[in-house]
Amino acid sequence: MPNRPVLDFWYEFASPYSCLSALRIEKLAEEAGVTLRWRPFLLGPIFAAQGWNTSPFALYPSKGRYMWRDTARRGRRQGVAIVKPENFPQNSLTAARLALAGRDGGWTPAFSKALFQAHFCEGRNMAEEAVLSAALKEAGSDPNVAIPLSRSEEVKGRLRAEIEYAKSIGIFGAPFFVAGDGELFWGDDRLEEALEWATEGR
Amino acid sequence: MPNRPVLDFWYEFASPYSCLSALRIEKLAEEAGVTLRWRPFLLGPIFAAQGWNTSPFALYPSKGRYMWRDTARRGRRQGVAIVKPENFPQNSLTAARLALAGRDGGWTPAFSKALFQAHFCEGRNMAEEAVLSAALKEAGSDPNVAIPLSRSEEVKGRLRAEIEYAKSIGIFGAPFFVAGDGELFWGDDRLEEALEWATEGR
Question: What Pfam families would the database entry show (chains A, B) (predicted)?
Answer without folding.
Answer: DSBA
